Amino acid sequence: MDLKEYQEFCSKGVLPATLEREPVVGFALGLVGETGEVVDDIKKRIYHGRDISVLHTMEELGDVMWYIANICNVYNISLQEVIDFNVKKLKARYQEMYGI
What we know:
Number of strands: 0
Largest sheet: none
Distance between the termini: 31 Å
Number of helices: 5
Radius of gyration: 16 Å
Strand content: under 5%
Mean pLDDT: 96
Low-confidence stretches: none
Shape: flat
Structural class: mainly alpha
Helix content: over 70%
Order of helices and strands: HHHHH
């Protein structure tokens, strides 16, 4: 599945109750919550010495991606545009790191 297909796939999983409000607010709140779960996995692994599965962290990162894809859908931008924009910005800002 490519990025465009993934973004379309994510749009199909939006709950009707979300669409009845300001969807971008719900997606932003979900993004923060899922990001917190990723951070919590890292904290537990490093500071608490727990054996947190990388697969669990990957699952949480997938949830983060779902929310990002749907925020992009609200603003009618593609994930590819976000990636391309970020690469351009990073290359301009950190030329020495990216061999420019």
